[in-house]
Specification:
The protein has 401 residues and is an alpha/beta fold. 36% of the residues lie in helices and 15% in strands. It is built from 16 helices and 13 strands.
Length: 401
């Protein structure tokens, strides 16, 4: 195989060959000839980032998938059947459930991978995957869910008083500045950033001083169908981690006494359950069929956190269900709070009174399930896949920076 630099650095190739090169690269099968590395932070469950990765695996099934750790059987069959390479984190004690404790080692782990010989490195990152070091002349595209959330905008949610112990907070006061410096410095390893939302694109501009193109994540709308059922419960589908603010919903529903079903698990699970009244039920993670049934029967989805984007509201909307969301972050790009064609409504503060006010308003409104479903279809997997394919093929024709 030719060296990656000579293959893709158009400025170094005679103009006659450039014409041939451009023709070849616009052929829909041309990407299959490349050596492609997919890079993902970790494989421990099927959340929003993994749903993006799943589509990339469908697009590039012959790629090699690099990840810090892999809890086998935790992700979809499409991902599981990839050629997967893990870092030394995968061999550390308690990695299956306590992997976040190794956060200070993550930069070293991602840099331990050898990407020489790969023509295209495509990372999907919310932590360190974007720090992958491509070989000379290779193209590195990063689909960024957010700059490393643990040390930037959500630092206090993970390591603030009441969230972490004294020793952990003391250690992170030393580690966090180093991680921030590493996160900014390694942004130069990326040729092109794709942000999952305009919300995240603004963070990339703020922290990395880089521009990012926006391609919203995929939603498997075909998995869901419009439902007009109302079985009398509200629904949350979420990882049970601090920044999701499930605690806010628990406190609110403890007061209202209305029925709330919570799908998901995570380090906050025991604490949340111990603080919940009997009208709140925790179901753990559910399979696709059961999740579809739960969406179909709910009155509305409750979305109390600040998300980078948020696929869950669109899954609910694919069932024709409205969303009651905190009016900040990615929800502003998915939920329509407009009297003429609403798909949900916002509450303005992350407080119990604000959420209760929104719920009271919700009970007086009418929503059209078909209108809500039509809105969700704008984010269908097929559209995401086509946008990503076109984006990659376009960028392969450009010289590296």
């Amino acid at each position: 195989m030719q060296a990656a630099a000579s293959r893709f650095d158009v400025s170094r190739i005679p103009s006659t060959f450039n014409i041939i090169h451009l023709i070849e690269m616009t052929d829909e099968n041309s990407v299959t000839d490349l050596r492609i590395a997919l890079v993902h932070d970790w494989l421990t469950g099927m959340r929003g980032g993994e749903k993006v990765l799943e589509v990339l695996c469908e697009l590039y099934p012959h790629a090699t998938l690099f990840t810090l750790l892999h809890n086998k059987g935790s992700v979809s069959e499409t991902i599981e059947k990839m050629k997967i390479r893990t870092s030394f984190i995968d061999r550390l004690p308690l990695k299956a459930t306590k992997y976040r404790n190794y956060l200070p080692l993550f930069p070293r782990a991602i840099e331990s991978f050898d990407f020489s010989g790969f023509d295209l490195v495509f990372s999907t990152s919310h932590a360190v995957a974007k720090g992958a070091r491509p070989g000379p002349g290779a193209l590195h595209i990063c689909y960024c869910h957010t700059p490393m959330r643990y040390v930037w905008e959500l630092y206090d949610e993970y390591f603030g008083p009441g969230r972490a112990g004294l020793l952990t907070r003391a250690a992170m006061s030393i580690v966090a500045p180093r991680l921030r410096e590493w996160d900014v410095r390694t942004s130069d390893r990326v040729n092109f950033f794709i942000a999952n939302s305009h919300n995240v694109a603004s963070r990339i501009r703020q922290y990395y001083h880089r521009t990012a193109d926006v391609i919203h994540p995929p939603v498997n709308v075909d998995q869901f169908s419009v439902s007009e059922k109302d079985e009398g419960y509200f629904l949350i589908v979420s990882a049970l981690v601090p920044y999701k603010r499930v605690d806010l919903a628990v406190e609110t529903f403890n007061q209202t006494g209305e029925r709330l079903l919570i799908v998901g698990s995570g380090p906050e699970s025991k604490k949340l359950q111990s603080n919940s009244n009997k009208n709140i039920q925790f179901l753990g993670w559910q399979g696709d069929a059961e999740l579809s049934r739960l969406y179909a029967g709910c009155r509305a989805l409750i979305f109390p956190g600040i998300e980078d984007f948020g696929i869950v509201p669109l899954e609910a909307m694919a069932c024709g269900k409205p969303v009651i969301a905190f009016g900040k972050g990615g929800a502003l790009e998915t939920v329509v709070d407009d009297p003429s064609h609403p798909t949900g409504l916002f509450f303005s503060e992350q407080t119990v009174p604000s959420l209760r006010e929104a719920m009271a308003k919700f009970s007086s409104l009418k929503f059209d399930p078909v209108t809500i479903r039509n809105h969700a279809e704008r984010f269908a997997c097929s559209k995401f896949k086509e946008r990503i394919r076109e984006y990659v093929e376009q960028k392969l024709d450009l010289p590296r920076k």
